[in-house]
Amino acid sequence: MPNTIRNLILIALGANVLAAEAISLPQPVPSPSAPIAVRPALPIERIVQHWRHDVTAPRLAALPQRGRALNDAAIALCEKTTQERLDTARLRWIDAFLAWRAADVLPLDPALQQQADPGPVESPKLETAIRTSEDQWDPMNPPSTAGLRAIEFLYWGNDQPKAQQGRLVFRRRCSYSALLAGKLARELDNAGARPPASASEYLQRFSAGIGQIMQSRLPGTGKDGKVSGEYDAWRSKQTKAAMQAGLATLESAFAEPAKNGISLIDALNEAGQKPLAEQLAQALNAARREVDALPSDSNTLPRDGARLTGLNGALSQLQKLIDGPLSEALARR
Questions:
Q1: Which residue among 85, 206, 301, 324 is least enclosed by CB atoms within 10 Å?
Q2: What is the per-residue pLDDT across 123-161, written as a single tens digit (0 to 9) for each?
Q3: Which ranges constitute the DSSP H helices of 29-170?
């Protein structure tokens, strides 16, 4: 066999042997890639369960009770207009008003909100309604002549609480206050008629409730720094207590341990979003400090507006957190 052919045969045989050995050798196993960290989604159903059962249900249940108690006190006052009975009616009004302020940061029927709290009192129109009332509600009366604030006006006047017993002796005036209390009680009996709200509806209402406090329930300040304008519950001096009631509802929704479902802060921590949970806790604490620092007598609010500026700033931060990061976190599935 010529040397060239023999050499080619040997090379081929050697290549086959090497190939066979390579096949029999263990092959390298590719190293596993590092797992991709996936942030757990928030348990939205459990959060909403907490909001519906632990936060909303007890506050809605309180409204009919407080409304009926106010109605009973208003009727008793008109039967015998004594200072003692007026004081009792005022206390029942405060109970109903604070229960309302605790609930109206929650998703409620808009019609109920308009009926119970239509806005600032227009006293000339209210006086006209009193003169023309015939022991039944006239649907043509302006909204500003009814609701909680109209009753407050009749019980306290414009910072003239001592003069109101003498004024309520007049039958039409006292009858109109009882008429409004009865109307309010019937409306509050239907407080729970609204369909259950979704997570996004809750957040929208939480944000809107904070906005209402900043826009229409705090006194404004003029260029001279003095408090001015109509503001929430100034006649009964319940401005601070009303804000505390609304803030307590938000604290319950966001921070308090849940009996049903899970609170939002606990849910954020469980989902690995601790920084956002801490931001929310800090914003709630800041708002609480500012509200608690207000004077109990709203008519002595600081004239330089510094306290109001601090409160508005704290509430604004809480609102921005709800509108931004919290809404985004709850929208993520």
A1: 324
A2: 899 999 998 887 778 888 888 899 999 999 999 988 777
A3: 44-50, 57-79, 83-103, 110-116, 123-132, 148-156, 164-168
